[in-house]
């Protein structure tokens, strides 16, 4: 069964995630829900945030620990986490489509790097059309989740190298090794910790990381960076300025607000994304 955003409003969203209907926070859904209350009352589970930054799930029926759902052309492992996540970010579907077309357009020998790669869906999109992909995430658990997702999608070539490491340590090591890439994707968190406890703060670390990414490009070949973000204060224009500072003004920028289409015909905003191509 597929994923679908059914409705949103009152700071919540109602989602059909495969077989199960869930309610999760949507902190920018200031409007009223469009569907009748009975549709919301039929939810199988509800996630409620608490002051710690986490939250708790309340289940209205017995549910498995994990299951699968289809979205963006892939079969995905779904597993509710203590932070209210499910293992994928539905708003990224447009970027997955772009990864497919960009990797295909690079031709033979294309190399892609997916930083903060999470559960590997973007990496699968890159590999699906021929790129050799390096997938990086600081969490070994997410690396294993991504490998499970790959098993659910036999149409994707196993051309993904899975690495659990700190993003700054890894990219600096790639520079020293003389490695280069033609397509780099980043979806950085506001705050995080690396594989050995290194602290990541987006306002301090993202500008430096983008500079390193620019140095990882192969001279004389097309180069694309896709940067997406959910952090307050990081608008499309802010991301463009950071990419321009790191990569120069010679490229082409495409910016947009990421959204999830709703069954009601509306769309739920969920972060921003900028693509830089040269």
From TrEMBL:
Keywords: Methyltransferase, S-adenosyl-L-methionine, Transferase
Lyase keyword on record: no
Domain S-adenosylmethionine-dependent methyltransferase: 108-210
InterPro entries reported in the protein's UniProt record: Glyco_hydro_b (IPR013780), SAM-dep_methyl-trfase (IPR019614), SAM-dependent_MTases_sf (IPR029063)
A biological process term (GO) from this entry: methylation
One Pfam assignment: Methyltrans_SAM
Highest rank taxon of the organism: Bacteria
One annotated GO molecular function: methyltransferase activity
Name of the protein in question: SAM-dependent methyltransferase
């Amino acid at each position: 069964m597929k994923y679908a955003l059914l409705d949103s409003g009152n700071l919540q969203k109602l989602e059909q995630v495969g077989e199960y209907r869930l309610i999760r926070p949507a902190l920018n859904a200031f409007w009223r829900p469009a569907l009748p209350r009975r549709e919301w009352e039929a939810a199988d589970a509800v996630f409620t945030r608490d002051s710690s930054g986490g939250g708790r799930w309340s289940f209205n029926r017995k549910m498995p620990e994990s299951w699968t759902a289809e979205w963006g052309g892939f079969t995905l492992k779904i597993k509710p986490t203590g932070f209210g996540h499910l293992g994928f970010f539905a708003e990224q579907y447009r970027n997955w489509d772009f990864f497919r077309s960009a990797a295909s357009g690079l031709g033979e020998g294309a190399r892609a790097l997916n930083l903060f790669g999470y559960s590997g869906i973007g990496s699968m999109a890159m590999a699906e059309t021929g790129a050799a992909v390096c997938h990086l995430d600081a969490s070994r658990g997410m690396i294993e989740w991504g490998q499970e997702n790959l098993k659910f999608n036999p149409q994707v070539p196993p051309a993904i190298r899975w690495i659990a490491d700190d993003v700054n340590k890894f990219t600096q090591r790639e520079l020293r090794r003389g490695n280069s890439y033609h397509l780099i994707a980043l979806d950085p968190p506001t705050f995080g910790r690396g594989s050995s406890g290194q602290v990541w703060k987006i306002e301090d670390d993202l500008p430096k990381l983008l500079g390193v990414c620019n140095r990882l490009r192969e001279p004389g070949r097309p180069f694309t960076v896709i940067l997406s973000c959910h952090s307050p204060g990081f608008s499309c224009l802010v991301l463009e300025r950071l990419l321009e500072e790191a990569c120069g003004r010679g490229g082409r920028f495409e910016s947009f607000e990421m959204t999830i289409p709703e069954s009601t015909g509306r769309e739920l905003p969920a972060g921003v994304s900028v693509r830089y191509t040269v």
